[in-house]
Amino acid sequence: MKKIKKKKLLIFIISYKASHRIIDVYNQIPIKKLKNFEVKILISDDYSNDDTVNYIKKIKSNKIYVNFNKYNLGYGSHIKKCLNFAIKKKCDYAVMIHGDGQYNPNYIPELLKFFTKKDSKFTGAVTGSRLLKGLSSVKKGGMPIYKMLGNIILTKIFNFLFNSNFTDAHTGLWAYNLSFLKDRKFKFLANNFNFDQDFRFLCMHNKMKIKEIFIRTKYGDERSQLHIIYAIRFFFNSIIFFLIDKKILKSKKFN
After folding, report:
1. Residue-number span of the structural domain to which 226 is assigned
2. What CATH number does residue 235 fall under?
3. Tens of pLDDT along 151-169?
4. How many domains does the chain have?
5. Which of 110, 167, 174, 215 is at a distance of 20 to 30 A from 28, taking alpha carbons?
6. Are 195 and 209 in contact (CB under 8 A)?
């Protein structure tokens, strides 16, 4: 009987000032539920100036890769580096987990289910949505009110412009179909926190589907000023994406 070759999966944990939480995140990865995949794990720290690096070094395993950036790359650039690593290792899929524990790794098997379906080649990514089951579930998850309202309003604007039906356009939990990214389509995308928004539009612009699963999240210290800057960028980027989508503007990011 011919042995079925397992698909290669990279789970990459990005950290920045995650401290002791990074160990909890690593320990929650459901390896036993991922037995159908050849799993690689990368822990990548973006030049934390606290004790995060010390906690990462406490993780004793010969099954993980560890990277410490020599300077702070920023959110988007850090993701690009991890995706490039996944492609270099010839992985089929990659899942991004945040080292601060906001997104639970136990959702990984459910994210990957969409990649095993018949039309998976047309699915560019799968994301976690905090709003898929309505407002009551978000309130139970402890999302700050200002963040919840901002999420709903900006997601509705995005959906209106692109005739889409996303419930959460601001999630940080992503699973990537690397067959879509082998030519590094993401290299021109934003290097800041708007990388996820750029990537969402990249998928849509290339007629690739983005699926959503319901998730609950944890919230720690919130930096409202950072969220205001992100929200302003998200709004204006959405307008620019709309003009690109209608072929009024051209952009090397998406061509």
Report:
1. 7-245
2. 3.90.550.10
3. 999 999 999 999 999 999 9
4. 1
5. 167
6. no
